């Protein structure tokens, strides 16, 4: 996928849900994975011509596993002229060694978000961009149905009362396959997750399930996404 196509889909999401306003300073949470780096490229490209002027910075929360090489990402941020901050933590040690969590993902996510929010405030950011794409939207809905018995997924825009921070998700119209294609075409410096739970989560199980259903009934993922758009879920009504 070409950068122009990524920018087109990103702008559509930003416009449909009024994600960006003049004067915003937006933090991109950089895990090192394909999704967050694609989002960084997208917002940096959008910044050059979007009518609402905004600032951009990138933040990585290092979980402290000791094998995360971020040098290529630092170089990329310098090339894109984006401020980059790495926050070192002991979250990995706390979860896997001290607490020995059997289901580590939920606690890890909460701790990472807390650290990220603090780093954002220190950098003067009022919004944070998460790199959830269309597949994530559908998979989260399926996880909610299977494990919670309700029809729910995250919103395109969410205001967090406790922190005063607004979460935006500009990649919601992109397929994961498009992200993979973009990363390969542009040789994006993806860093593999050092987390020992990577690839062994409920989300991974649901991802495989959706893929299997989509093979049996081609187009089902798109129809699920359309159902979410048209289902009047809280926060999903386009403005």
Can you put this structure into words, describing what you see?
With 239 residues, this protein is an alpha/beta fold. Helix content is 49%, strand content 13%. It has 9 helices and 6 strands; from the N terminus they run αβαβαβααβαββααα. The protein has a 6-stranded mixed beta sheet, with helices on both faces. It starts with a helix and ends in a 9-residue tail after the last helix. The relative contact order is 0.18.
Blueprint of the fold:
Blueprint: H1 3-16, E1 25-29, H2 34-47, E2 55-62, H3 71-80, E3 83-88, H4 91-98, H5 104-122, E4 127-129, H6 134-148, E5 157-160, E6 165-168, H7 176-185, H8 202-216, H9 220-230
Parallel strand pairs: 1-2, 1-4, 2-3, 4-6
Antiparallel strand pairs: 5-6
Helix pairs in contact: 1-2, 2-7, 4-5, 6-8, 6-9
């Amino acid at each position: 996928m070409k950068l122009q196509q990524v920018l087109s889909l990103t702008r559509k999401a930003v416009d449909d849900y009024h994600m960006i306003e003049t004067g915003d300073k937006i933090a991109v949470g950089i895990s090192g994975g394909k999704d967050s780096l694609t989002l960084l490229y997208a917002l940096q490209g959008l910044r050059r011509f979007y009518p609402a002027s905004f600032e951009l910075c990138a933040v990585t929360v290092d979980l402290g596993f000791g094998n995360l090489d971020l040098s290529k990402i630092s170089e990329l941020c310098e090339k894109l002229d984006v401020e980059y901050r790495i926050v070192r933590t002991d979250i990995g040690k706390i979860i896997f060694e001290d607490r020995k969590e059997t289901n580590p993902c939920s606690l890890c996510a909460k701790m990472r978000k807390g650290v990220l929010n603090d780093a954002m405030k220190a950098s003067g950011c009022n919004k944070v961009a998460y790199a959830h794409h269309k597949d994530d939207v559908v998979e989260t809905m399926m996880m909610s149905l299977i494990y919670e018995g309700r029809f729910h997924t995250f919103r395109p825009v969410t205001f967090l009362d406790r922190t005063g921070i607004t979460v935006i998700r500009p990649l919601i119209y992109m397929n994961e396959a498009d992200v993979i294609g973009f990363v390969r075409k542009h040789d994006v410096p993806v860093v593999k997750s050092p987390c020992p739970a990577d690839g062994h989560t409920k989300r991974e199980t649901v991802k495989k399930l959706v893929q299997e259903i989509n093979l049996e009934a081609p187009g089902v993922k798109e129809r699920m996404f359309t159902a979410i758009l048209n289902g009047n879920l809280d926060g999903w009504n386009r403005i």
